[in-house]
Amino acid sequence: MAIVAFDPSRPNFTPYGFTCLRWQASRTPRPDRHNEIELNLLESGSLTYLVGGRRVRLEAGQLHVFWAAMPHQILEQEDAENFLVATIPLTWFLEWRLPEKLMQPLLQGKVLRSGEPEYASEDVQMLSRWIDYMEHSPKVLQQIILLEIQARLLRFALSGPSALPETAAGRGPAANRSELSKAERLACFVAQHCTQKLSAADMGRAVELHPNYAMSVFKNTFGITLNEYLIRQRISHAQRLLVTSNANITDIALSSGFTSISRFNAAFHEVCECSPSQYRRRNRVLD
Q1: What is the number of alpha carbons within 13 Å of residue 201 lying toward its C-beta?
Q2: What is the gyration radius of the CA atoms in the chain, in angstroms?
Q3: CA distances (Å), origin 65, targets 80, 116, 152, 204
Q4: Is the domain of 162 the same as that of 217?
Q5: Are 236 and 15 in contact (CB under 8 A)?
Q6: Residue 87 β-bridge partners
Q7: How many domains would you assign to the chain?
């Protein structure tokens, strides 16, 4: 089974998409940021993360969930060789409409842990199965995995998850928490409304900031422009429709928030390095 290591040359906020992988548990030279909900599970040992300027410790045997748009970096590992990871694009996650007791703390940047440590061995088996399916099995099984992840997160929400305790990073200046909060709210607003017509004024109004200042705060926090982020959210929405529905590509483009098929095709090729039809053929989960 392949083990993935963090690539420090990876541009900030490049999407991972829907993945199930085994990652190397080692210190990372810089923070990573990507717009997926991330599930982490250690089989042994512990990892200490720096998440949004605060330290949190992940222990083996419990499922952890967080929104990876927050800058996160592994600072320390203790007796952990690798860990199991699943990532789900934020737009897909939001469409599941999971209970607020899960949604709100995640979108506020909290790292949550399962309230069911007695199911640790089952979670290890489940994530290991997802990784094996994603690596070796037909694409149709990916839809089954998504349904299982949705069900697991629903149980996660109902079990009473708790936020991991945070401590100050103890090195360097703390992040500007007020601006970070505005950027998080803005990212969430755009992800929730990406298929609608959105202007800079709409987005600034959502977080009570002047549009120009909102764009500056977002770029400083996430490293990409607000417009780039909006386009990536629309492309993510379109990707899901391409592989899980029979809708024609023009309808998918329009329902994903694009005003023309030409704009959609150009944006899709820039993000995915292939055409929408090629993407559908490669990743189809319907016969």
Answers
A1: 0
A2: 19
A3: 18, 13, 11, 28
A4: no
A5: yes
A6: 19, 38
A7: 2
Per-residue pLDDT tens over the stretch 7-53: 999 887 788 989 999 999 999 998 888 889 999 999 999 999 988 66
Whether 146 and 153 have beta carbons less than 8 Å apart is answered as no
* CATH code for position 255: 1.10.10.60
Q: What is the pTM of this model?
A: 0.73
CA distances from 171 to 47, 54, 71, 88, 115 (A): 18, 10, 15, 31, 31
Which pLDDT value is given to residue 241?
Answer: 85
Distance separating alpha carbons of residues 192 and 154, to the nearest angstrom: 19
The Cα 273–Cα 266 span in angstroms is 10
Q: Which of 79, 137, 70 has its CA nearest to residue 108?
A: 70
